[in-house]
Structure prediction request, 170 residues.
Amino acid sequence: MVKSCTSQEQKLAGFRELFREDFDVPGLSRLVLGRFWRIFTPSEQQEFLGLFENFVVLTYNERLLEYADGGGGLRAIGSRPEPDGVIVSSELTREAGAWAGHGPTGHPIRVDWRLIARDGMYKISDVIIDGLSMAVNGRSQLEGVVQRNGGRPQAILAVMRQQTASASAR
Prediction:
């Protein structure tokens, strides 16, 4: 039992490192927070950055492990330039019977990686899975949080604290 916990902890630590090194975390955070970024105080912005990182790492690590355990693989299928970077397209394939409920078996899932040039390096600024942008989806969810809480942007922090605590308890 201890070995599987360590293994899970190692996978989580590895994904956190990958997220920090390969993603434009500050840019993605600002994009997801949208117009609320300017409303937040500097300390609220810093808290959001930490909560956002924890939320993404805890949530997406679980999903990526599910995909990885289902067999198959990820392969690049092309790229196209953008004004401030490039989009790299890939396909995620799976073995027959894997990932029940995640689309038709045998059909690859399209994953586009939006990369932005920062300080002479490329960083991932968004992941688009079958046309659904991680950044746009996150922004939409946060706008819903504000609407459901009387237009108070600070409710985002409370909800993210709660979601992060729930995700880390799993």
In short: The two ends are 15 Å apart (CA to CA). The beta strands are 73-82, 85-93, 109-118, 121-129, 132-133. The helical segments are 2-22, 25-33, 36-39, 42-69, 134-148, 155-169. The CA atoms of residues 71 and 113 lie 21 Å apart.
